[in-house]
Amino acid sequence: MVGTVETKLTELGITLPTPATPMANYVPFVRSGNTVTVSGQVCFGNDGKLVAKGRLGEGVSMEDGQKAARACAVNLLAQLKAALGDLDKVARVIRLGGFINSAPGFGDGPKVMNGASDLMVAVFGDKGRHARSTVGVAALPADAAVEVEGTFEVV
Q1: Domains observed in the chain
Q2: What is the mean pLDDT of residues 87-95?
Q3: Fewest CB atoms less than 10 Å from the CB: which of 85, 96, 119, 148?
Q4: Is the full-model pTM beyond 0.90?
C-alpha cells in the first residue's frame, strides 16, 4: 500500500532516487530516539548529475539555485525513506540547514533555500514547516551550488 506522503510525491511528479553513498567518513543518517538527522545532500538529480554547479551570484541564477535546493530536499527524502522505510513515519520536519555556494556579496541565500523549504511544506503540509539556517559558503563538494541537511521527528 502506498502511503500518503508517497502519493503526494507522485502528485508532485517526484520520483525518489537511490540514496547517494557518502563521499567521506560519515553515515547518511543517524536515528536517535524519535529523531533522524540526515547528512548534507548536494543537488544531484535523478540522472546522477548536479542540477546546478558553481556559485550563486556568479553564473548560477536564482531560479537554478532554487531548483538545486529542491533537488537537495528530494535527496533528503530519499535518505529518510532509507532510514524509515515509510515516509508517513515523519511526524515533523524540525530543521533544515542550507549551504549556498556563493560569490562574494551574494546575500539571497534564504531565497535559494526556499526551494527546499517549499518542497517540505508541499509534501508534509503544516508538519513540513521548520526552523532553518542558511549559510553562504566559498565552496561545496563537487562544486555543487547547494547542499541541504535536515532533522526530522519520527514515530
Answers
A1: 4-14+28-154 (3.30.1330.40)
A2: 98
A3: 85
A4: yes
